C-alpha cells in the first residue's frame, strides 16, 4: 500500500559491535555519533521500505536528488535524558513528531504515522542506550530528518523520500553554562526570507565578540528602532518585563525598557541550550541594552525544566522509554 506508514514492529536490525566511548571533557555539540541510525525510504507506487536500525554510515543519494539542488529537507531537534529512575526519557516528543509531519507535508514529502516514527525513535534510543550520558547537564541529542531523494531534476512532488534518525551525546550547548552571554543584534540580515543569512551569521557574531546573533525584521520604510526581534541562530529569545505575554517586541521597546530598568532579564531557550541567560544586546553602532536583574528567574526556570527532563519530578512532558 503506497499510503500505509512503516511500522516499528517491522524494524530490521543490522547491529554492529558496541563502541560507546564517551569522553565528556572533550564532548563537542554534534561532533560525536552513536553506533547506529534509523533509516527508511518511501518510493511512489511502492510505499515505505522496511524500517532499519543499522550501523551509522554515509547515505548515498542520486546526483539529481532535489535535496541537493532545492534544499527539500526538514528536521527536528530532540533530546533523551538519563532519568533519576534509571530510565531514558524524552521531552514532549509528540510535539516534535507532529511538527516534523507538518514540515514534511509542506515540502510534499511522503506522509508517515507520527506514533510509529516515535516508537522507532524509542527503539533506536534503547539500541544505543550505552551512549546516553548519565551526568547532570548531559543528554543525547536526537535528529530526525526527512528529505527528497527523487531521481529527477525540477521542483515537484517528491517520488522518493528518505526518513532517518541519528543521535549524538552532548553536554551544555554553551561552555559558559548559565553564565549570561552577550548577543549581537543583526539589523541587516534576516533569520529567514526575505534577506536570507548565507554566510553572515558566524562572521557577524565573531566580529562583535558575541557567541550568538539575534535577527530582526523591519518593514520597508520603518525606522531601525521599529524592527521587531525574530530569533537567534540556535534558540528563541525572550524578554522579562513587567508582565508575561506572547507577542512581538521591537528594538525601540527593549531599548526604552532597558534604559528605565524594566528589562529585568533576557534569555534564549530551545532544545539545544534549554535556557540560556543573556547579559546584553549589542547593536552594530556599539549601543548596549542590558538586563537589570540578577538572573534569578532564568535560574529558577532552568532548574524547573531540568527537574522535568531528568525525571526528578513527575510531569506529563517527560516520557520514559
CATH structural class of the largest domain: Alpha Beta
The gross shape turns out to be: globular
Which second-level CATH architecture of the largest domain applies?
2-Layer Sandwich
Proportion of residues in helical segments: 10-25%
Number of domains: 2
CATH topology of the largest domain: D-amino Acid Aminotransferase, Chain A, domain 1
Question: Class by helix and strand content?
Answer: alpha+beta
Radius of gyration, taken over Cα atoms and rounded to an integer in Å: 21 Å
User: Which assembly state applies to the chains in this document?
Assistant: single chain
Count of individual helical segments: 6
CATH superfamily caption of the largest domain? Aminotransferase class 4, branched-chain amino acid transferase, N-terminal domain
Q: Distance N terminus to C terminus?
A: 30 Å
Task: Give the SSE string.
Answer: EEEEHEEEHHEEEHEEEHEEEHE
The stretches of 5 or more residues where confidence is low (pLDDT under 50) are: 196-204
Number of strands: 17
How is the main sheet built? 10 strands, mixed
Amino acid at each position: 500500500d503506497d499510503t500505509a506508514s512503516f511500522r516499528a514492529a517491522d524494524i530490521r536490525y543490522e547491529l554492529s559491535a558496541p563502541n560507546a566511548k564517551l569522553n565528556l571533557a572533550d564532548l563537542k555539540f554534534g561532533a560525536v555519533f552513536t553506533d547506529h541510525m534509523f533509516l527508511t525510504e518511501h518510493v511512489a507506487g511502492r510505499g515505505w521500505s522496511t524500517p532499519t536500525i543499522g550501523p551509522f554510515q554515509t547515505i548515498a543519494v542520486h546526483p539529481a536528488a532535489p535535496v541537493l539542488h532545492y534544499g527539500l529537507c526538514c528536521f527536528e531537534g530532540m533530546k533523551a535524558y538519563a532519568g533519576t529512575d534509571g530510565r531514558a526519557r524524552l521531552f514532549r516528543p509528540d510535539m516534535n513528531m507532529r511538527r516534523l509531519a507538518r514540515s514534511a507535508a509542506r515540502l510534499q514529502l511522503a506522509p508517515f504515522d507520527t506514533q510509529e516514527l516515535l516508537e522507532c525513535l524509542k527503539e533506536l534510543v534503547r539500541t544505543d542506550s550505552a551512549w546516553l550520558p548519565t551526568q547532570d547537564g548531559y543528554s543525547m541529542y536526537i535528529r530526525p530528518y526527512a528529505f527528497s531523494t527523487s531521481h529527477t531534476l525540477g521542483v515537484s512532488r517528491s517520488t522518493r523520500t528518505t526518513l532517518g534518525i541519528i543521535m549524538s551525546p552532548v553536554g551544555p550547548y554553551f561552555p559558559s553554562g548559565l553564565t549570561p552571554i552577550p548577543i549581537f543584534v543583526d539589523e541587516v540580515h534576516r533569520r529567514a526570507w526575505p534577506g536570507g543569512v548565507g554566510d553572515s551569521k558566524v562572521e557577524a557574531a565573531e566580529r562583535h565578540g558575541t557567541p550568538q546573533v539575534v535577527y530582526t525584521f523591519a518593514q520597508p520604510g520603518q525606522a531601525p528602532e521599529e524592527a521587531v526581534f525574530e530569533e537567534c541562530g540556535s534558540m528563541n529569545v525572550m524578554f522579562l518585563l513587567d508582565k508575561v505575554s506572547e507577542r512581538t517586541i521591537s528594538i525601540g521597546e527593549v531599548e526604552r525598557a532597558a534604559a528605565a530598568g524594566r528589562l529585568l532579564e533576557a534569555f534564549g531557550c530551545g532544545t539545544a541550550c534549554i535556557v540560556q541567560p543573556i547579559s546584553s544586546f549589542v547593536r552594530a553602532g556599539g549601543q548596549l541594552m542590558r538586563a537589570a536583574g540578577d538572573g534569578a528567574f532564568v535560574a529558577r526556570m532552568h532548574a524547573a525544566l531540568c527537574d522535568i527532563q531528568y525525571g526528578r519530578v513527575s510531569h506529563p512532558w517527560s516520557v520514559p522509554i
